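Field reference: sequence -> structure
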Amino acid sequence: MFDKTGRPASIWIQGGFLSKGAAFAGYLAVFLGVLLASQFLLGRVGLEVFLFALVGVFAGSIYAVISFRDLTIPFLLLILAVAVLRFFWSIRAPILPDLFFDRIMLIWLAMVFMVKFFAERRKLRGPYLLDVIILVHGIYIMSRVLLTNKLYFHSWAVSIMMPYLAYFFAKNIMSRSRQVHWLFLLLLLVGVYYNVTAIAEKYHWNWLIYPKYIALPHVGFIGRSYGPFHNPGIFGNAMGMILPIHLYFISITRKSFLKLPLFISMALGVVGLFFTYTRGSWLAAMAGMAVVVLLNRKHYLRTLLPLAAIAPLIAIFILGAGQDKFLKERVENNDTVGSRVGTMVTALRVWRDHPFLGCGSYGYKEYRDNYIEPIEAPFLGTVRFSQFRNTPAHDMYLGPLAEDGLVGMGMQLTIYYLALSALLTKYRRGRESDYFIIFLFPIFAGIMANYLVGGLTISYRHTSILGVLFYMSAGIVYGYEPDQEAEKEMSLQQSPEGRE
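Structure field:
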């Protein structure tokens, strides 16, 4: 007898039997090897560590399979790691660089992206002008750090490398409205964590605070909510950048019982932001929200109006803003304003002597003492140098100008210009019919406006979260092209306009 291939059936049966036998033997050998290794490790590390490692390997394997199927998942986990998980878990070695969770996620995303990029012969999404400026600026700052003071390489990695890579991956991965929808949902949950943490800090509800180090008093910020960043300005700006996302979900949600928790979360966000007692963050949040409402008045303005009417009542009657002595001290305190003015004037003096290349990236404080003098400022009178003697560069414009000169600041401003120009151009082109532009672009515009306004009063050069949110938004906006007609039609049908 012969099989379908024309070979004798006996040979086929014999070959099949042998192949199955070899496979069984291989499986058995692997099983015995794993069993012996498990017994060895169990005796070495103990049951608890072994079980945690086993669960980690299993979860990691599942995550690896999911990552290679959809790059959205590792990108979202990277954003979550930067915003929250970085402070929950890390490996710190005395000699090697600290291994934070966001760095692990970044390395993993880069590996998966490169494998898929070459294996599937993908092309990077255009246009490329902003990509080139970002790359040149990042290399420019890195080279200056390596040549002048390598101790600031960590600051470069945090404030430059991480945001710029977030731009790259966002531009080349997050191209569909469904992906951005999940991104916003993730940030909404992060915002809820921030809001609860800020309020719990204010009222010392330590059982609600995690990580627990947040509850420890921090010199210089006592009485203010500073979150996992240990900085009320960074914390307030992060909350303000996420806050407008509530408007998106409230607008697209039809069921009233789902709108209520969103309104409550948004109100808690306003309260949490208030408890940072940071005027710059308040101003940045208002600017960001104003831009969001301006670009989508039809849906977002009517959502915001009830909250705008209720917020003063909450502030006065529930929070007791009128009797908040700490708030009064913060608002009426001109020392901090004088300190910022003195720092800005000093930064200009440093730049005056180092106009083109600056005094060195992250190196303002090393030159500061040589330029400090009393300053006569309008409305403030004489600002004594003791008010700003030890103050670092406190903004994202004059500080980097002094450190990186016209070359570095020119590239930085070019990045802002290209990102905003792309947003406005595409918004004008698709604001009548494109769901992505109607509902998502205003949120990205609000995040970017918050970042740019907040940069007037606080430096982002030693943190990741604010830069990551800005450059992620810039990447999605800059790379978006309304060429997915089927997706646009489906999205419009799902939107409030389409359902009506």
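Note: Residues 17-119 form one domain.
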